[in-house]
Structure formats: C-alpha cells, structure tokens
Amino acid sequence: MTKYDELVKEAINALKKCNVPTKGPLFSCVVLTKNGNVYSSGRYFSDSYSLTLHAEQAALAHAADHGEHEVVAMAAVGKDKHPVIPCSMCRQLIWEHSKRSGIDIGIVVADKNNQYKIIKISKLVPYPWP
Questions:
Q1: 10 Å Cβ neighbour count for 118?
Q2: What pLDDT does 70 receive?
Q3: What is the pLDDT of residue 25?
Q4: What is the Cα gyration radius of the chain?
Q5: What residues does each domain of the chain span?
Q6: Count of other CB atoms within 10 angstroms of residue 41
Q7: Which of 17, 49, 79, 111 is the most exposed place for a label (fewest CB within 10 A)?
Q8: Is this structure's pTM higher than 0.85?
C-alpha cells in the first residue's frame, strides 16, 4: 500500500468526522506533513452557509494547530463515489499555504473506490493571487 493509498483510506475514515446535521454533501480531507504525520477533518456545516468550514480548510488548520506547517500532500473524498477536487476557495488557501512553506503540495484527487491521481497545487492554480 502506497502513502497515497493510505491517505485515501484515512480520508474515507474521516467522513465520520463531518458535522453536517442537515441534508448536505459530506466531504473529508487529510493532510500529510513533511514529518510524516497525518491530520484529518470533515466538513463543518453552518446554517448560515458562509461560516461552513470546508474539509480542506479544517484539515490544514488541524495540522497548523499541531505546529505542522509543511504539508506535502492532501487527499479529499466525498460520500459519493465521484472524485473530489478542491473548490476555488480551497485551492487559493492551499496555494497560499504552499507558497509560505515552499512545498508544491500534491493534491490526491480520489474517489471512494480508492482510485486517484496526484495533481500539484501549482497545476490547479496556474494564475494565483497575489
């Protein structure tokens, strides 16, 4: 089993961490740090929608809360079997994190059948801001 297989498996397990009390999509994300540690989170839903935390945002914050700022890879999955790719807001946040750390983070685009491909954040955000 590769490290990416393990990340996808951890992301699937992290679906249990979602805080989505209403009908809504379930997403989870795990990050792998340079030190080899894995931090996960699920989507945290808010009735106001604007306060909802995406799984990618929460997983990055979880790692940072443990003093881990050098993320090398991330994997996100959803309850559906479709591959999950970060939304534009999450891509921006991941890119900013990548810029600060100097690591071109590998995004593991996966589905629940453990099928995946790795795309570097620099490819997902070809024209970043700022």
A1: 14
A2: 98
A3: 87
A4: 14
A5: 3-124
A6: 26
A7: 49
A8: yes
pLDDT digits (tens, 9 = 90+) for 24-59: 789 999 999 999 999 999 999 998 989 999 999 999
- Residue 81 reports pLDDT greater than 80: no
Exposed/middle/buried for residue 3 (C-beta within 10 Å: 0-12, 13-18, 19+): middle
| Whole-angstrom distance, CA of residue 21 vs CA of residue 61 | 22
* Euclidean distance between the first and the last CA atom of the chain, given in angstroms as a whole number: 38
Q: Could you give the CA distance from residue 127 to residue 22 in angstroms, rounded to a whole number? A: 36
The amino acid that residue 51 corresponds to is L
The CATH label, of 2.30.130.10, 1.10.150.20, 3.40.50.2300, 3.40.140.10, for the domain at 3-124 is 3.40.140.10
DSSP character string of 17-51: G-B--SS---EEEEEEETTS-EEEEE-B--TTSTT
